[in-house]
Design a protein that fits this description.
Distance between the termini of chain A: 25 Å
CATH architecture of chain A: Orthogonal Bundle
Number of helices of chain B: 9
Oligomer: heterodimer
Radius of gyration of chain A: 23 Å
Helix content of chain A: over 70%
CATH class of chain A: Mainly Alpha
Low-confidence stretches of chain B: none
Shape of chain B: elongated
Strand content of chain A: under 5%
Order of helices and strands of chain B: EEEHEEEHHHEHEHEEHHEHEEEEEE
CATH topology of chain A: MetI-like fold
Number of helices of chain A: 12
Number of domains of chain A: 1
Number of strands of chain A: 0
Low-confidence stretches of chain A: 272-278
Mean pLDDT of chain B: 92
Structural class of chain B: alpha+beta
Largest sheet of chain A: none
Radius of gyration of chain B: 24 Å
Shape of chain A: globular
Chain lengths: 278, 337
Amino acid sequence: MRPTVRGQALFALAVAAVAAWSLAPFLWQAITSLKPAAEVAAVPVRYWPSTLDFSSYAQVFEARPFATYIWNSVVVGLGTTALTTVLGVCAAYAFSRLGLPGGRAALIGILGLSLFPGTVLIVPLKMLAAKAGLLNTRSGLVIAYTALNLPFAIWVLKAFFDRLPKDVEEAAWLDGLSRWQTLWKIVLPLSAPAVATTAILVFIFSWNEFLIAQTLVSRDAARTVPVGIAMLSGVTVYEVPWGQIAAAVVVTTLPVVAIVLAFQRRIVEGLTAGAVKG
Amino acid sequence: MAEVKVEDIRKSFGGGKPVLDGVSFTVADGEFVSLLGPSGCGKTTLLRIIAGLEYADSGRLGIGGREVSEVPPKDRDIAFVFQNYALYPHLTVSENVAMGLQLRGTPAPEIARRIADAAARLGLEPLLNRRPAALSGGQRQRVALARSLVREPQVFLLDEPLSNLDAVLRERTRGELKLLFKRAKGTVVYVTHDQVEAMTMSDRIVLLNEGKIQQVGTPEDLYRRPANVYAATFLGAPPMNIVPRSDAERSGLFPGLPAGDLLVGVRPEELKVGEGREAVVIVVEPVGSHTILTLDAAGASLRAVVPGTWSGGSTCKVGVPPGSVHLFDAPTGARRA
């Protein structure tokens, strides 16, 4: 069907509406972060700052060790992503290809586990972490996040592996590749889109996670950004430092946006390069 | 090069009906043998067992005088061409072809030489840096062939390599393939459900049905002396006429039948139309070079092939030349004479 001018205009309008809807809160945060303190909560609302004021950014880093928080979030995020992806790929490949006895039951069990709400897990998690000496450590968070994300990763990756043509792997064995080599040289390159998607979503989960980070970590040395933002406080209990919070949100969102965009390119590349056509 | 010895191979999936039920045959060194049969007859499973992609429940398998039942696929010194080619989508044509050689530690100059050689033979030179997605079906098929040729294996295993090509290309490739493997002096096991491919390309044919061998022989053997009713009706287009004894006697076309419960067979192309007994023409199917007639000769339904276009009317005379009659035992379907 040939797209009409009217159709295209409507499509563009719809895209713009969705984009505005999604981006408006972030845009509002960005603008707020650049307002002078007096204009942040001014009545009537000032939509645009009179001057661009970067002092909120400076205050964020003075008020709290935000550089440490960001570093912690990066380490925990990358650690969780790496561990989840590696374990997820191995498990999903095994479920998909090795015909494990009881594999189906195990898969459903894994799905069942992921249905528990996070709040139910908090207390036992904290007790476990305390026993294992993992309170106030980044590795404690990485382990907890990996456990929570693995069911998702396994299901997504298994569904993708199931769709890969088996013949190609058999050709690889005949060519002399071992199982591991087949996974590494054939299956993974073909699954790049799925692996990248899984990795991004796991990273975003880890980057945004608040409840567990708040429960398992009570010291700045291992604290992550979401908890750090929540800890920003004004001079008095009644003062909410909106400017600083907005600045913190911007500072911590931009790296994620950058990472996602970078990965997204890879996804598109993977899709076009790996085209499996019958 | 090597012979392939298949001995009493049995296989069933999930304990169900056997897919292969005691299959034995030998492919001589350098021979081109087709496994022919309808879909679901077990021919692809048998090929995959020879390749090591499946394991037989019982039986022995030898390649080049070595028992290989428990040998992993990569150590069997075989090359396999898959029905849908199974190229690595993320690698270029030359990388696809080189993979097996690299993993076997073939020196780079030797790899380059063999790729150049195979590419020249198959007309792949301009495509070496493309990915499979950028190739046509015929080109992919040639890449799959190149991948098997460069390995210089003892045995080539091909699983319906022509079935994904269009009719014209299939016709042309058939001859090319035959020549290619003759030059490569390889032992070839070729799976197909297409009797024309099997007849034209093979030194010998193994005809399978429901997991059992129906007949092993040269294409000529299978055509001239089918071992049973199944072989008689699977080969030939249209297939051999098979008439129950009672109908055959009533038609008067088959005098002097021996005693017993018989099925009488005669090939449509051997029936003499224009002389003999009266028959009614029921269907006329012109094919161009010849015409297929369906006749009713006093209750015996027969198909006959006549050259050119049919200009006769709604009745004709039909006769069975002596020596063209095949007799089969009715209860078992086995050949009598």
